[in-house]
């Protein structure tokens, strides 16, 4: 089968869009009648142009900038998302002007006005904070209510429900039990804190979206439109396709590269999966496994520099460090994730005897790069400016500008001057409109998370939860330490066990929260609550932020709400829940690595106390542990594993990732008998090495 045949099996652009909308509520936009559709597109284009201009020529004062961005966003959300189900057919023109329900017009206008009210009264704001006027309370109440409804429409119920519970906690503090009790706050005080100060809606979260994230979302859309995403996929096919289980390895590599410019797990899954999943199934991978490979690989995009979704830019604001520090810290953990998935697909391919792609099925790397090298220029420009120490939004400005120039050059090479001009304008319009549209839901989420963070700072609940969690963890740690006291050496101290149990509880909550809310919102909520917890145990802030972030991302492949896995299952026509379970075990490298850098921060490189010896011990231990755990799940190392061998390797994996001498020594001792028994089998053909036990494929 040729490369053209492979492409013929892929989804069409319309099918990809429908699939993405099915599993990602953030891009489930309503159809609009022509007049309102044009007006909405024009507003989106203006919003994109505003951000593009301010990125290059100066960001306005924070409150004005954030208010303008929020006002546009809230109005456009009520144009773009329906209240319930599908958009009804307009029947009464008085109740549905221009095809939009009257209530949506009211909410859109109320949201825009209440969002711009704070910038409008900014000169008097210092006199009103702490003593708001009745009109301030009214406008703040309107914004909070509109924001709750806008977020519900854009991404569902979970986040608005959580925000409402936090508001209720602030109001009914006196009725709370035990350590959670506080004096309570009047509605006027709550609105004052959430609306008029920088601790709430207009806080850091909204500021980062308006100042950084919007620009990088727009860059990702424009870079994809000029063909950079397709270049990544073709290069990955040329490099990795010929090896055993080739399409699966192409999936891992292409998802890693595409993830460098896209922060969406589902978009990454649909884009690369439309090509790689049919190819994986064709050479012999089970459908659910093919879907799982793509989903697990695509979720790694959110932790891959330089874009990393929105979280990298949130970290630079919360931690007060340069973006280069965040990107450097992300390198090794991101590599570990893709390494873990790659090892599992390799072992699966070896045990099934799967082939790589034939030469006639593969593109030629040099020919691919020669045809598409121009599309890489914007990425090089972006990275070069980031590394130079300039502001991230200036890097995004020049990256987007480079995309526009490449777009114009491409059209000039394909068409005459008049046609090229028309096509360039059309594609620029479409790219800016789509880029702005993709930012709507994340803006609403960030503003609403500002409400949650505001309640945390108003009531001090973060430190109260920290006290509860660390107390429980310390009790468990003391019990386990006593139970291990029969050993002639100490595997872990009480302090280390306390940290371990605290991290486990934090990880579980991150995953559970991530089942209902997007990664960015999950990170923002958990860092407000978890940072005090981990801080009490001496964890460095950078490490705490990365730990919470990584486990929030893991939720995209954790059933029962593994949206990336379900999107991939839709492409593969596979059982969605089975694909989700398999994707979760393929992503177990991502689950282990945060514990490694929590106990050995040197893995993140740019931390206090970094040493090369600890770094290499952590890296080699983590890679060995991931390989052993992958073998356990696959039931294959060099040949089929017996039950006792899988048990030994499982124990060794947990010990090898611990960055300490004794656990590493014991882990190696457990691995040796398995390796010594299996090494001689490498000389035999795969078909003669035996059969994997039933159920090993997970």
Automatic annotation (TrEMBL):
<feature type="transmembrane region" description="Helical">
    <location>
        <begin position="524"/>
        <end position="551"/>
    </location>
</feature>
<keyword id="KW-1133">Transmembrane helix</keyword>
<comment type="function">
    <text>Part of the tripartite ATP-independent periplasmic (TRAP) transport system.</text>
</comment>
<protein>
    <submittedName>
        <fullName>TRAP transporter 4TM/12TM fusion protein</fullName>
    </submittedName>
</protein>
<feature type="transmembrane region" description="Helical">
    <location>
        <begin position="200"/>
        <end position="223"/>
    </location>
</feature>
<feature type="transmembrane region" description="Helical">
    <location>
        <begin position="133"/>
        <end position="150"/>
    </location>
</feature>
<feature type="transmembrane region" description="Helical">
    <location>
        <begin position="363"/>
        <end position="387"/>
    </location>
</feature>
<feature type="transmembrane region" description="Helical">
    <location>
        <begin position="465"/>
        <end position="484"/>
    </location>
</feature>
<dbReference type="GO" id="GO:0005886">
    <property type="term" value="C:plasma membrane"/>
</dbReference>
<dbReference type="InterPro" id="IPR010656">
    <property type="entry name" value="DctM"/>
</dbReference>
<keyword id="KW-0997">Cell inner membrane</keyword>
<keyword id="KW-1003">Cell membrane</keyword>
<dbReference type="InterPro" id="IPR011853">
    <property type="entry name" value="TRAP_DctM-Dct_fused"/>
</dbReference>
<feature type="transmembrane region" description="Helical">
    <location>
        <begin position="394"/>
        <end position="413"/>
    </location>
</feature>
<dbReference type="GO" id="GO:0022857">
    <property type="term" value="F:transmembrane transporter activity"/>
</dbReference>
<feature type="transmembrane region" description="Helical">
    <location>
        <begin position="157"/>
        <end position="180"/>
    </location>
</feature>
<keyword id="KW-0472">Membrane</keyword>
<feature type="transmembrane region" description="Helical">
    <location>
        <begin position="589"/>
        <end position="610"/>
    </location>
</feature>
<feature type="transmembrane region" description="Helical">
    <location>
        <begin position="496"/>
        <end position="517"/>
    </location>
</feature>
<feature type="transmembrane region" description="Helical">
    <location>
        <begin position="68"/>
        <end position="86"/>
    </location>
</feature>
<feature type="transmembrane region" description="Helical">
    <location>
        <begin position="557"/>
        <end position="577"/>
    </location>
</feature>
<feature type="transmembrane region" description="Helical">
    <location>
        <begin position="98"/>
        <end position="121"/>
    </location>
</feature>
<feature type="transmembrane region" description="Helical">
    <location>
        <begin position="32"/>
        <end position="53"/>
    </location>
</feature>
<feature type="transmembrane region" description="Helical">
    <location>
        <begin position="438"/>
        <end position="458"/>
    </location>
</feature>
<keyword id="KW-0813">Transport</keyword>
<feature type="transmembrane region" description="Helical">
    <location>
        <begin position="616"/>
        <end position="639"/>
    </location>
</feature>
<keyword id="KW-0812">Transmembrane</keyword>
<feature type="transmembrane region" description="Helical">
    <location>
        <begin position="318"/>
        <end position="343"/>
    </location>
</feature>
<feature type="domain" description="TRAP C4-dicarboxylate transport system permease DctM subunit">
    <location>
        <begin position="143"/>
        <end position="606"/>
    </location>
</feature>
<feature type="transmembrane region" description="Helical">
    <location>
        <begin position="651"/>
        <end position="676"/>
    </location>
</feature>
<dbReference type="Pfam" id="PF06808">
    <property type="entry name" value="DctM"/>
</dbReference>
């Amino acid at each position: 089968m040729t490369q053209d045949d492979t492409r013929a099996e892929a989804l069409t652009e319309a099918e990809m869009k429908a699939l993405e909308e099915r599993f990602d509520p953030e891009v489930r936009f309503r159809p609009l009648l022509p007049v309102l559709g044009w007006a909405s597109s024009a507003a989106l284009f203006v919003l994109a142009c505003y951000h593009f201009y301010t990125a290059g020529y100066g960001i306005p004062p924070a409150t004005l900038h954030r208010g303008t961005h929020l006002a546009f966003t809230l109005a456009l959300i009520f144009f773009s998302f329906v209240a319930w189900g599908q958009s009804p057919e307009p029947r009464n023109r008085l109740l549905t002007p221009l095809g939009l329900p009257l209530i949506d017009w009211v909410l859109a206008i109320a949201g825009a006005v209440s969002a711009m009210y704070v910038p409008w009264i900014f000169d008097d704001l210092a006199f009103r904070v702490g003593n708001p006027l009745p009109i301030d309370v009214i406008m703040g109440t309107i914004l909070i209510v509109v924001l709750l409804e806008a977020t519900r429409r854009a991404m569902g119920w979970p986040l608005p429900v959580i925000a409402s519970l936090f508001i209720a906690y602030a109001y009914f503090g006196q009725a709370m039990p035990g350590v959670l009790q506080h004096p309570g706050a009047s509605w006027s005080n709550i609105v004052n804190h959430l609306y008029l100060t920088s601790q709430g809606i207009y806080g850091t979260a909204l500021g980062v979206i308006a100042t950084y994230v919007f620009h990088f979302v727009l860059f990702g859309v424009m870079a994809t439109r000029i063909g950079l995403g397709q270049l990544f996929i073709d290069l990955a096919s040329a490099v990795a396709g010929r090896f055993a289980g080739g399409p699966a390895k192409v999936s891992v590599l292409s998802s890693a590269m595409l993830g460098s410019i896209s922060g969406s797990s589902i978009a990454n899954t649909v884009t690369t999966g439309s090509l790689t999943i049919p190819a994986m199934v064709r050479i012999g991978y089970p459908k659910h496994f093919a879907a799982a490979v793509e989903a697990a690989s695509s979720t790694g995009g959110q932790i891959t520099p330089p874009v990393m979704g929105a979280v990298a830019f949130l970290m630079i604001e919360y931690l007060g460090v340069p973006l280069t520090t965040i990107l450097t810290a992300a390198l090794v953990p991101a590599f570990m994730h893709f390494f873990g998935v790659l090892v599992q697909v390799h072992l699966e391919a070896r045990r099934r005897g799967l082939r790589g792609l034939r030469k006639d099925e593969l593109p030629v790397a040099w020919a691919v790069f020669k045809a598409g090298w121009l599309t890489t220029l914007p990425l090089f420009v972006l990275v070069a400016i980031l590394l130079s120490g300039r502001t991230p939004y200036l890097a995004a400005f020049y990256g987007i500008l480079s995309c526009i120039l490449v777009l114009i050059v491409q059209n000039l090479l394909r068409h005459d001057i008049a046609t090229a001009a028309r096509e360039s304008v059309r594609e620029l319009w479409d790219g800016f409109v789509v880029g702005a549209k993709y930012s709507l839901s994340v803006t609403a989420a960030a503003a609403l998370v500002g409400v949650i963070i505001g309640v945390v700072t108003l009531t001090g609940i973060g430190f109260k939860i920290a006290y509860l969690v660390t107390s429980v963890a310390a009790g468990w740690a003391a019990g386990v330490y006593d139970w291990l006291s029969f050993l002639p050496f100490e595997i872990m101290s009480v302090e280390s066990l306390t940290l371990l149990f605290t991290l486990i509880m934090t990880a579980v909550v991150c995953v559970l929260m991530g089942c209902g809310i997007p990664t960015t919102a999950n990170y923002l909520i958990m860092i407000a609550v978890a940072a005090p917890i981990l801080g009490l145990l001496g964890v460095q802030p950078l490490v705490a932020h990365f730990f919470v972030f990584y486990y929030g991302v893991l939720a995209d492949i954790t059933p029962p709400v593994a949206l990336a896995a379900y999107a991939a299952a839709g492409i593969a026509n596979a059982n969605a829940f089975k694909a989700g379970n398999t994707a979760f075990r393929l992503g177990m490298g991502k689950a282990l690595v945060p514990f490694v850098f929590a106990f050995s921060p040197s893995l993140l490189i740019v931390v206090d106390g970094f040493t090369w010896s600890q770094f290499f011990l952590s890296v080699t231990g983590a890679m060995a542990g991931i390989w052993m755990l992958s073998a356990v799940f696959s039931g294959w190392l060099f040949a089929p594993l017996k039950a006792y061998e899988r048990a030994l390797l499982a124990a060794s994996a947990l010990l090898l990732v611990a960055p300490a001498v004794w656990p590493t020594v014991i882990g190696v001792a457990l691995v040796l008998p398995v390796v010594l028994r299996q090494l001689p089998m490498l000389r035999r053909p795969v078909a003669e090495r035996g059969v994997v036990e039933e159920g090993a494929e997970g």
